[in-house]
Structure formats: structure tokens, C-alpha cells
What does this fold into?
Amino acid sequence: MKLFVSPVTDPAINLGLEAYFLQQYGEEGCLVYRNADCVVIGKNQNPYREVDVSFCKKHLISVYRRMTGGGAVFHDLGNINTAFFGKRMEEAEALRKRWSEPTIAFLGTLGLEAERDCNNGLFVGGVKVSGSAQGLQRDRYLNHSTLLYHSNLVKLSAALKSPEGIVEGQGILSKRSSVMNLQDRIDSGEGVEIFQDQWTRFLLDRLKIETVSRIPDEAGHYAQQRWIEKYRHWDWLVGRSPRFTYRLKLPEQVLLLDVRKGIIEKVHCEADSEKAKLLEDLQGREFSLSSLEDSSLKSLWPDMDSSLY
It folds into this structure.
């Protein structure tokens, strides 16, 4: 078994590394990494239903879709991520323990008693400090998790607060929980880098691994290709979303946009016939905030608030 620590904080690259270790790597191991500000949604989620897209756009918070299920999570440099991966020789519950048991034991060394709930989150004193998701492909598994140490909880809450009533449809909804930073609970002034080093050294000892291994060159190349070919593309982030209806409130008017596979199929409105005809321009477009901004909406309702997007 090997332990890797990613040298980068680029979310797309780290997601690509996880894909490599799940799909291409033949051994057991784990990967520790941190990401710059981003939101990562589950494989079967709708970004417009889970995320305040306008807030993320304004604050330069990237949004990504991962290859595993589960709910949406916020990452920043104060949050430590760990992925355990290897051969799938046990049931899913036993595989989850490969992640949860070391994490609970580590928190115990800090004087914290953690418990895992039915949604595979870890709670200390009834407050969530870690979430996880699992991916299974053929004879391989990957279970990745977070550890909130010194995250910006204000930004986390705002980014994961989708505007109420705007989106209706199918898809997996995130389970919302109160969260806290471990740094506050253990009353530590140590930086996140030191905490990550403590976690890494704990894993080396528990898993009986001599030293941190260098990430294979082919893993880096694979991660780059995944970013180029998949993670940066609209059809992966939005096009994969389950069918939904987007509710857009305009001055004295509400539009309902039916979206399937990321494409606006139909526009429902009570506008006069002339405006309704112009709104047909939206049908067949890829759904995104920019597609709404570039459409005929502003010419039809010049006083509309752009924050409604």
C-alpha cells in the first residue's frame, strides 16, 4: 500500500488524480490533497439545484462534477481531502470503514470523539466535521472524504445555498448539516499545513507505510487529460444534470424553462404573443447563466435585475 500527497491545489487536477487511482492504478493506496476554492457536486446532482451559481461566479469559486455519488461539498485550502482506493474485495459498508475507522481514530488522538451517521458523515458533538462519497467501478473502489480544519464557513454556507424555489426536478439532493472547523474544537493555533502533516504521519503509522510516495508521472498526465477532455466541459457539468425546470422571476413575469440534458426544451410564460415569439430564441440553447444573459431577455425586460440569473 502507498500513500500519496498531491503537490497541487488545482481541483480539476486532483479530481483527475482520483480518476486515475480508481480506473488505472492497480494497487491499494490513499491520496491526501487540498483544493483551492471550489464546489464539487455529486455525479447525479444538478448544480443549479445545489449551488448558488451567481455567488460562485461573483467570488470566482469554480464548480465541478465528480465521478462519485453523494452530495455537494465546498473545498478551500482549510479543508483536507483524503481518497482511499484499491481492489474491491469487500461489500460497500466494509469499504467505507477503510476510510472512517482511521479518521475516527485520528480524531481520537486529538481528544475528539467522532461518530459516523447513516449518510457517511463524521460528527463531533452532533456537528459535522467530515463528509464522504464512494465510487465503485468493476473490481475497484474509491472512497474520498473531507476534514474541515480551518475552512471559510461563511463562504461555504453561501456557496451551497441554492436560491429557493428556482429549480425543480430530479436528482440527488444534498443532506444539509451544521458544520464546524476542527481547529476551533481543539483550540489550536497551528496552521492547516501542520494539521495535514499530522494526519499524513498518522496514516503512515496506522497503515504501516514507510514514507510518502511520489505521484507517478502517468497519473499527472492522465489527470491533465481528464481536465482537457471532461471536467472543464459544459456537457459534463451541466449536460449530465437530470431533467429540471428553472424558474426565472422577471418584472411582472415568471418564466419556466424546461431543461433536458442541459438543453432548454421549452419556455412557459404569460407574455404577449410578440414577446412569446421572441422568447422562442431560448429554445434549443445550452442552459447556463451566460446563455440567459446573451438572449433576448434583456431587450424584452430592460429593467430586470441581473442578479436574478
Q: What stands out?
A: The longest strand covers residues 79-87. Residues 304-309 have pLDDT under 50 and may be disordered.
